[in-house]
Write a structure and sequence with these properties.
Rossmann fold, alpha/beta, four-stranded mixed beta sheet, seven-stranded mixed beta sheet, 13 strands, disordered N terminus
Length: 287
């Protein structure tokens, strides 16, 4: 059914996509490995051919890493559906003419929908530390002809640093969008990948107005927010923060209450396991 939907978009559109994919493949694949677009790669380095799957939904075309096709977002898109449609709809309804900060971009599952419907002069500042996911997100952007997204192969944190990202579980299965930053020393199991961490405040120019900050950073929200406090105080954006099962929500943390709730942020709702916080009138502080 999904394949039929793709072919029915028209022969001319399909030919344009096929030609663009061929040009894209030639630019990304080493000359010695061009015989197989999805050749199995041994490492997760830039020089290796991606083992990926091209899929479609109502918003666009996506390059999905085959290694994480079992993950919820990948599974949904591979069946032609939209992942977290209510979150996407909310972001589009509330971004107005401002920019969006999107940390945890994965393979770009949100990007075609957001990029095509935000304001004319708006930008999306997207961050993805996992190298394979980042490369797939690059291809997703190119295939959709998107030019208003600034994509960074990095994590967001409190300060600029080098860190390690767990990209596989104990059985060796890829974590995909659930890759997590390691706060201590890496385990040395080969399941980690060295990544760059950057603060939001050093990335977003002061002349950009940010309407929404959406963080899907697997428990690293506090560090990401610390690195973006100047931007947050300047723009007072809507915050969309992932909540994890069995983990205390960040908005119940004393640090968050002092820096956000006491400064006018309130919980306004929940979407797909994300908490939505909006800036209203600062509440009175008790003596």
């Amino acid at each position: 059914m999904h394949r039929t939907k793709i072919l029915n978009t028209g022969k001319a559109a399909w030919i344009r996509f096929r030609n663009k994919s061929a040009r894209l493949y030639r630019s990304f694949a080493p000359a010695t490995k061009r015989k197989h677009f999805a050749a199995k790669h041994k490492k997760n380095g830039i020089g290796d051919v991606l083992d990926c799957i091209i899929t479609f939904n109502e918003y666009g075309v996506y390059c999905v890493p085959r290694s994480s096709s079992h993950r919820p977002a990948a599974y949904k898109l591979l069946s032609g559906r939209v992942y977290e449609p209510q979150t996407i709809a909310f972001m589009l309804e509330n971004c107005a003419s401002g920019d969006i900060i999107h940390a945890g971009a994965y393979f770009g599952d949100f990007l075609p929908a957001l990029a095509r419907q935000i304001g004319f002069n708006s930008k999306i500042w997207a961050f993805e530390p996992n190298t394979e996911n980042y490369r797939c997100a690059q291809i997703t952007l190119i295939m959709n002809g998107i030019s208003n997204v600034v994509l960074s192969n990095s994590a967001v944190g409190a300060s600029r640093a080098e860190s390690n990202l767990t990209v596989k579980d104990s059985s060796g299965k890829d974590l995909g969008g659930a890759s997590t930053l390691i706060t201590g020393k890496p385990g040395g199991s080969g399941r980690e990948q060295q990544v760059t961490v950057v603060p939001i405040d050093e990335t977003i120019p002061n002349d950009r107005h940010v309407s929404i900050i959406q963080l899907d950073v697997e428990g690293y929200e506090k560090e990401a927010l610390v690195g973006g406090m100047l931007t947050i105080r300047r723009c007072r954006p809507i915050l969309i923060l992932e909540t994890l099962p069995g983990v205390k929500p960040i908005f119940e943390d004393e640090w968050f209450i002092h820096n956000f709730m006491d400064e006018g942020y309130q919980v306004s709702g929940y979407l797909h396991g994300n908490v939505i916080l909006k800036h209203v009138i600062p509440r009175k502080k008790h003596a």
